[in-house]
């Protein structure tokens, strides 16, 4: 058996952009010896580009479909990174463990959340509109946020027709225990967690239609239980240890077959499969992530990118030393 001392860099494309393969090769070829690309519907002849066929909402399925082609016993870690992330240019195959504070058996994901505890660090969330609206009416501070994918988590059931998945995942109580060892407690969800709700009343008609929300607030008192324990996380960068990779891939496959959204599937699969998982809060380092889903955030993102004049050479030479990565960098728009 070969000694496990190498890392596989696996670059994941949500959509097919063959031209970006060459660009990414130039960025990483001097830093990583083993690079693979998971590209939807790829029909070219590059030996390290793996064709995958799955909806990008479940791109954990890409990991599964490509597994037998990129798996090798030599690899200590499998470093999955989205094609629109650029890693800090100081990170390479010889020092990535130091940058991510990884032991040989540890895995990494940016940050994991219990679904009843979403906050505004998850920048693709929106304010929880029922409680937000009532709080504004009462001149109170707004702290609760709503992530639309919690609705999917609430409705998710691994027991589905046509998929014999019941025995392929840890049972409910075992899954609770496995998540708890990582500090994730699965609590009941509020109405706001699951459904969000109507916006702040702006008309008499709106008030009449939503009188139970605004006056009674009965729905806010309801609690909802997940059918299977799930966690959430930004999942465009994940590092999986050799010890965990086979279980992780297996669970990703089950979650793909049962159509669980990727940013629920990947963190849950990783926590179920791994004994030790590093996160950005634990290691005290962060990536720089932009979610330009509002005018203010779009403006902030544009201001940041204009510092580099949309040139990759500038990005590499001026890359913020304290950041692990920057996302998104849409390579087709960069020189």
Task: Write a structural description.
The chain has a 5-stranded mixed β-sheet with strand order 3-2-1-4-13, sandwiched between helices. Strands 5-16-15 form a 3-stranded mixed β-sheet, with no helix packed on it. A two-stranded parallel ribbon has the order 6-14. α2 (60-70) packs across α11 (245-257). With 335 residues, the chain is α/β, with parallel strands linked by helices. The protein folds into 2 domains: 6-112 and 233-333, Alpha-Beta Complex (Spore Coat Polysaccharide Biosynthesis Protein SpsA, Chain A); 116-159 and 185-230, no CATH class. The protein is globular, with a radius of gyration of 21 Å. The protein has 15 helices and 16 strands.
Beta fraction: 15-25%
Strand order of the largest sheet: 3-2-1-4-13
Query: What is the typical, i.e. mean, pLDDT?
Result: 87
- CATH architecture annotation name of the largest domain: Alpha-Beta Complex
In DSSP terms (H or I, runs of 4 or more residues), the helix count works out at: 15
Supply Rg.
Answer: 21 Å
Number of strands: 16
Shape: globular
Structural class: alpha/beta
Helical content (DSSP H or I, runs of 4+):
25-40%
Distance between the termini: 44 Å
């Amino acid at each position: 058996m070969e000694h496990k001392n190498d890392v596989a860099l696996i670059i994941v494309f949500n959509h097919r952009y063959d031209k970006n393969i060459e660009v990414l090769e130039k960025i990483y070829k001097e830093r990583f010896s083993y690079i693979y690309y998971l590209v939807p519907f790829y029909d070219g002849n590059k030996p390290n580009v793996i064709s995958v066929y799955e909806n990008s909402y479940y791109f954990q399925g890409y990991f599964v479909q490509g597994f037998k082609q990129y798996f090798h016993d030599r690899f200590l870690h499998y470093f999955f990174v989205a094609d629109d992330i650029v890693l800090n240019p100081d990170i390479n195959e010889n020092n990535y463990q130091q940058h991510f504070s990884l032991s040989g058996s540890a895995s990494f994901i940016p940050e994991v959340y219990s679904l009843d505890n979403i906050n505004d660090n998850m920048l693709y969330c929106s304010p929880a509109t029922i409680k937000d609206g009532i709080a504004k009416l009462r001149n109170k501070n707004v702290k609760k946020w709503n992530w639309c994918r919690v609705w999917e988590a609430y409705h998710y059931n691994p027991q589905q027709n046509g998929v014999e998945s019941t025995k392929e995942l840890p049972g409910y109580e075992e899954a609770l225990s496995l998540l708890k060892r990582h500090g994730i407690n699965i609590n009941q969800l509020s109405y706001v967690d699951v459904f969000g709700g109507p916006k702040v009343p702006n008309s008499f008609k709106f008030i009449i239609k939503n009188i139970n929300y605004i006056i009674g607030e009965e729905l806010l008192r309801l609690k909802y239980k997940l059918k299977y324990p799930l966690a959430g996380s930004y999942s465009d960068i994940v590092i999986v240890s050799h010890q965990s990779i086979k279980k992780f891939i297996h669970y990703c496959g089950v979650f793909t077959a049962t159509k669980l959204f990727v940013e629920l599937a990947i963190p849950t699969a990783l926590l179920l499969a791994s004994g030790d998982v590093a996160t950005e809060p634990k290691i005290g380092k962060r990536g720089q992530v932009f979610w330009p889903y509002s005018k203010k955030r779009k403006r902030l993102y544009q201001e940041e990118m204009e510092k580099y004049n949309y040139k990759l050479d500038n990005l590499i030479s001026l890359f913020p030393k304290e950041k692990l990565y920057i996302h998104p960098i849409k390579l087709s728009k960069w020189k």
